[in-house]
Write a structure and sequence with these properties.
This protein has 129 residues and is mostly helical. The radius of gyration is 39 Å and the shape is rod-shaped. The chain is 77% helix and 0% strand.
Length: 129
């Protein structure tokens, strides 16, 4: 019976020791692989943080892997291009509007100044008050 008890003890130690070690190894390997897989996503997020209204021309290069992340990067770059185009159109519109309004306002101001500084003849009519 002694050989059977020693085999049973060895089996118990293996049964108690191997699953937690395998679980720990799996957790560490999973954490490492997830970190490596998310590195490009972090790079895209950092590129998005650097973008502002004044520097929209920061396209993020693709990884040439032809996967979903490259599709996301291409979509992100196209969105940046559309935003940059919209900002340029808004700047051009503002410049055009200010130019178009400047001329009539200047003409009105000139006429008002002439009207204010032109002496008027005194009126002979009495005020009804």
């Amino acid at each position: 019976m002694t050989p059977y008890l020693s085999i049973l003890r060895e089996f118990a130690w293996i049964y108690i020791g191997v699953p937690p070690a395998a679980l720990l190894l799996g957790l560490l390997l999973g954490w490492f692989m997830a970190g490596r897989a998310l590195t490009p996503v972090l790079a895209v997020a950092q590129a998005a943080q650097r973008i502002s209204g004044s520097n929209l021309s920061l396209p993020h290069p693709t990884r040439q892997a032809d996967d979903e992340l490259d599709y996301l990067i291409l979509t992100f770059n196209r969105m940046i291009d559309r935003l940059e185009s919209s900002f340029q159109q808004m700047k051009q519109f503002s410049a055009d509007v200010s130019h178009e309004l400047r001329t009539p306002l200047t003409a009105i101001r000139g006429q008002l100044e002439v009207a204010l500084f032109t002496p008027r003849p005194p009126s002979n009519t009495a005020t009804p008050w």
